[in-house]
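Data availability (excerpt). The following record was deposited with the supplementary files.
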Amino acid sequence: MAKRWDVLGVGCNSVDYVYRLPASPQANGPTAKLRIASHQAMCGGQMATAMAACAGLGLRAGYLGSTGDDHNGRLIVSELQQRGVDVSHVMTRDCANRFAVITVDETSGERIVLWDRDDRLNLTAADLDPAVIGAARLVHVDDEDQEAAIAAALVAKAAGVPVTSDIDRVTERTNQLISVVSVPIFAEHVLPAITGEADVERGLRRVRRSHTGLLCVTLGAGGAMLLEGDDLVSEPAFRITAVDTTGAGDVFRAAFICGLLSESPPRELLRFANAAAAISCTRRGAMNSVPARDEVERLLTGA
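Predicted structure:
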């Protein structure tokens, strides 16, 4: 049966209020008070950004999530539609949309994210239609609504659909989420918290004891690392001048998914994902930072 999407994303979205600052704020220091250099509202959120990036890289992408019935909720849906993401399975809830206040240090591009989300936006297993999950070649979940992420992964597994995941925080259900997905993609700070290992390679190998699939960890300016069986593959980040790192991890995951679906060898897969993330860091915002495939290929070839 023909698949409706290459990738279906199940998870969160956000409208980001981005404030660019001349330095990082620090209490009781010279940067305790800072004048805002510029500010704007931009669309983002882990899953919405990842699906926008998948579409930008040429995949047929669908988004299953919830939005508020306010201006921000409508803004998210409109932005995803414009970027070619199928939003026919977005659910509108009677509340305000998720939002975040993001401060960006203009000198380094590093950011701090403060966010809020109405509980009525939470996804549950009851929101998932097995027929929708089975209509994708691959399902990608985040860890915002872990109940829904775990349920989506189990439904996908039953349908023979591989599942990738964004593991960005640690809760009492994180290990369960890791166990049910095909390819967990960890943020760097998560591995020490769940394995007790400060060394990245040792952390991945500890996870390997209970998980047989590909294991990946993003390392920011250090690039990324992947464990395939017992073989460790490490690729450095591309050297760029960072403007804003918001959304870089989501773009990495989107490009990683592209590599998986095209059955790229592990090293090529990591280089492609690193290149996409690097380009995103040279632009402001989350969805606004999404690169096109030809831009990534030019960086890879040095053209």
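Summary of structural features: The first strand starts at residue 5 and ends at 10.
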